[in-house]
Amino acid sequence: MEKSPALNEQVSILEEQVGIYETVKGSLVEVDDRAPDNRADFSSIEFYGENSIKLYDIDAAYINRLLGTYSAHNQDIREEIEKALTKLNKSEAVKDIYREILNAMDEQTVSSNEDIFVVKRHFFTKAVDQAIQTFADNWFVLVQELHSSAMQYVVGAEPIPNIGAIIESKDFDGYKKQHPEARPFKYAQDMKRDWRVTLDEVIMPLNDELR
């Protein structure tokens, strides 16, 4: 079966990116702290194709590999992780959780021998739950309705999934005690706007790290 020129080009690009991925995997070796001259320098690795689309598999594999080779107070690997997070345009919310993981390894509340996927799931799930709880406390709405909304949400969704149930769950009297100037209509509009920001800037980036 003949392939169109466009299809041939796409296949060629995919084959090239697979080669890059395998090169990255092969380059990520254990760092011997006793031989500083042998430290691998990952700073020059690029994670973007010519069309600037993020290659998420390489992103995840690279970060996970660095975490898997981390030992307590290893400043070199910590710096490489920070560089990678910045290069990959990770949000501050995501960066903070990776720092929490590294700090936990430093303090040995998390063993460096633990499965990194289990560790990440624990920390990032906890961060999502905390973000939702904070929103619920600030706006006096039910946590379970927010969770339902977050599970269904995709960036740009209109309307926000389950937004009606979230509004119906409000304790406006409780909110008004803390914000005497509040008005029902403005409250609903402000809460919806804040929930979308929370979804786009906090919850979605955190959930992306669990994929």
Q: How is this structure best described in words?
A:
Pfam families: EcoR124_C. Residues 15-181 form the Type I restriction enzyme R protein C-terminal domain. Keywords: Endonuclease, Hydrolase, Nuclease. The protein is mostly helical and 211 residues long. The chain has two domains: 1-111, no CATH class; 115-211, no CATH class. Helix content is 64%, strand content 0%. It has nine helices and no strands. Helix 4 crosses helix 5 (116-139) and helix 5 runs antiparallel to helix 9 (184-208). The longest helix has 25 residues, at 184-208. It starts with a helix and ends with a helix.
Largest sheet: none
Which secondary-structure class do the elements indicate? mainly alpha
Q: Spans with pLDDT under 50 lasting ≥5 residues?
A: 21-31, 42-58
Termini Cα gap: 35 Å
Count the E strands: 0
Fraction in beta strands: under 5%
| Integer average pLDDT | 82
CA-based shape: elongated
Number of domain units: 2
How does the SSE layout of this entry go?
Layout: H1 5-27, H2 56-68, H3 75-87, H4 92-106, H5 116-139, H6 143-152, H7 163-168, H8 172-178, H9 184-208
Helix pairs in contact: 2-3, 4-5, 5-9
Give a summary of the structure in a few sentences.
It comes from Vagococcus allomyrinae. This protein has 2 domains: 1-111, no CATH class; 115-211, no CATH class.
Properties at a glance:
mainly alpha; 211 residues; single chain; 0% strand
